[in-house]
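I have been asked to look over a protein record a colleague put together. Alongside the sequence sits a line of tokens, each denoting a local backbone shape. Please read both lines and tell me whether the tokens look consistent with the sequence. Take the sequence as given and treat only the tokens as open to question. I have pasted the whole thing underneath without changing anything:
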Amino acid sequence: MSSTPLRRPDLPSLEPGWVWLVGAGPGDPGLITLLAAKALGEADVVVYDALVGEAILALARPGAELEYAGKRGGKPSIKQPDISLRLIQLAREGKRVLRLKGGDPMVFGRGGEEALALVEAKVPFRIVPGISAGIGGLAYAGIPVTHRETNSAVTFVTGHDATGDVPDSVNWTALAQSSPVLVIYMALKHIERIASLLIQGGRSAEEPVAIVCQATLPEQRVLETTLGRCAADAAAAGLEPPAMVVIGEVVRLRAALDWLGALQGRALKADPLGTRRRTESA
């Protein structure tokens, strides 16, 4: 059978003097959007962050300038105001500017700050969402963020604030008592402190936890543990950022939904939550 070629819809073009704030997704280049791919093929300058990999940058058009503007916790980084000023400068030079961010630029990506700077400078811009690591990255680990047998709500929270510390503005006790599933970005550095705060707030030390490193990439690692042991287990495993942490009963579903593991021969468990047994005994 012959395959039908992909018919691309009529998409907008990245025009000179414009800045597109684009999400590159969690890492796998197959997860970028059509608009992101189009922008990579049209941009004069790609200003990219630390979580955008070489496989995605390789999609930029020949001759495009690639400018690194990464920010990594605990390491020397370009200051955020300087990044915004650089975007403005490039746009005013008439360049077609692609600001490429890992995940979604508006989910703990400081895209809102950069967009506000562009508004103040009267630079036209477009926001192109991407797949957030807190959803797509967990899906590649076989962990859904919602499942009707476990949770009807999920909370996304950052593991550090602008100072690099555990956010004081987050009411960890309230989260511990109210949200059945917590997805925590940038939490690995402070996982021991965060776990302690959640346990103090009433969360069980035996609650399942998964830590997903290098999500969606060939180097992806997934550690299944518990809230009480997660800090020690992560240290023993030598896990390093970037990593997502998910806390809640949805982690148990990985026993059935680890589709990447199944491709490598892992046996999957059909009923990890025991829902069939509960239904039959009711």
Remarks:
- Residues 80-92 form the longest helix (13 residues).
- The mean pLDDT is 93.
